[in-house]
Amino acid sequence: MTSLLQMWAVCNHKEGYVDLKGAGLICAGFILGSIVGAKFATGISDSVLQRVFGITLIAFGIKMTSFK
Q1: How many CB atoms are located within 10 Å of the residue 49 CB?
Q2: Rounded CA gap, 5 and 3, in Å?
Q3: Sign of CA dihedral 68, 18, 10, 21
Q4: What is the pTM of this model?
Q5: What span, in angstroms and rounded, lies between the C-alpha atoms of 52 and 21?
Q6: Residues 41-57: pLDDT tens digits?
């Protein structure tokens, strides 16, 4: 599966459909965000984390059902 994905990525890059600078910035953001998020999440109590997660889910649910 990985080799097929690599072939697809190389073909799309050769045709100019892939912006490597943008992809690199997105990857760096994912890595940095996961590290910072993990440090933040392990530093707060379970009850606070559950409340924040619950409020976030409710807010996204309201947004998805209310706005188009």
Answers
A1: 14
A2: 5
A3: negative
A4: 0.57
A5: 34
A6: 899 999 999 999 999 99
Q: How far apart are CA 53 and CA 33, in angstroms?
A: 17
- Residue 26 domain-assigned? yes
Within-domain flag for 45: yes
The CA-CA-CA angle for residues 13, 19, 22, to 5°, reads 145
CA 41 to chain centre: 16
- Domain with 54 in it: 19-66
CA torsion 31→50→39→59, rounded to 10°?
Answer: 40
**How far is residue 51's CA from residue 19's CA, in Å, rounded to a whole number?**
39
Question: What is the number of domains present in the chain?
Answer: 1
Q: Is 6 part of a structural domain of the chain?
A: no
Residue 11 within any structural domain of the chain? no
CB 18 within 8 A of CB 12: yes
